[in-house]
Amino acid sequence: MRDSHVKGPGFAALRPCKQETDPSSFPVYPDLVDRLVANKEQPDPDGVIPHVMAVCSAYSYAGFQYRGDPGTLAVMMARLGLDENDIRLFEQRVDALYIASAAYLVQDKDRRIAILCYRGTQPEDIISILTDADVRPETLAVELEGRRHEVHAGFYRNVRATRHHVVEALERAVRGESVAPDEPGTKGDGLEALYITGHSLGGAMAAIMAMILVHEPRYRHITERLKGVYTFGQPMIGGPDLARACEEAPGPHDTHVLRDRLLRYIFDRDVVPALPPRPVGPYAPFGREFLPHCLKGVGGAPTAGPAASPTRPSLSPPTRRSTPSPCPPTSCARPRTATGEGWRSVSPTGCGGPYDPCRAPAPRAGRKSPNRACTTPRRTASRVSRWWRRSPSSPPGSR
Cα-Cα-Cα-Cα dihedral of 172, 173, 174, 176, to 10°? Predict the structure, then answer.
């Protein structure tokens, strides 16, 4: 186990030999701590919190030779608005068991908020890649509605590798102590807001950790401070029964955290959210799913949103759809531009949901597909299935 701690820089250290910090341009979000604490509905209508979580998830990949670099993440979080932050990194690696776990815990200088960020699949790390390929189900030691459920074995092992260290640090934050064990004393009234985030494998680990916190009675004092779970390109972690139990189980203060505050952001035709493929067993997502969209897109001309500045990307507020609607045209599913396209929330029974008709196998040549305009990542499940059915002797690029 590698346990490291770094202290983030102040605003003055990030702008040497320059004039006094101008709140209009730096940091990116001067009121970030107040936003994270005060926000009661997820996602943030202004798009600030999704942007912060996305940046945190992206820079958790910083490092060299399979070792994380909390210093880089500390600098980026300071630029966003969390100056003089504390970051504690827990890393555990067991190659024989396909464990390559890394959890970053970010705490602001006033110890009011904490962000738990899990690192995803490292492109150059074969052990991290094999973790995604491990599809043998393993029983999760958490009972939901009196039943035990099965989850993706690789994802669960990676969460379990650092879970107790993470919970111990979170308990320190709840008491108003620093996440670093060598810093004595307390500040304020303790932790007021907790966010969990991650990309790819890290998103799956974030979802499992949130599920553990919500359904373990001994962690209730931590769950009461859980504001939201933001995942990006997250694969599915369990079957339809687990997904249904998570969405129906209530959280603290009569809220459904795993149904309403677990937000899965998916970009265009990303194949990862469609994993694991169907031939290995039934898997289903839970929470709220958001896809990039534009209001109009005939001929690839999206409707422009509010103007964005280089330091503050504009994110239009996501709109929630009460009833399923047809899949967007292909020309609308494009990356967000500098003008700021929004995100579209989909229904669990609509496009992108666990019962999405787009998950059906692709039709044979010569047949017209009723879902040919669908641009959600669920359509890619059939492609993954065809790859999975290849014989072991056939290389991935063979036909």
Answer: 90
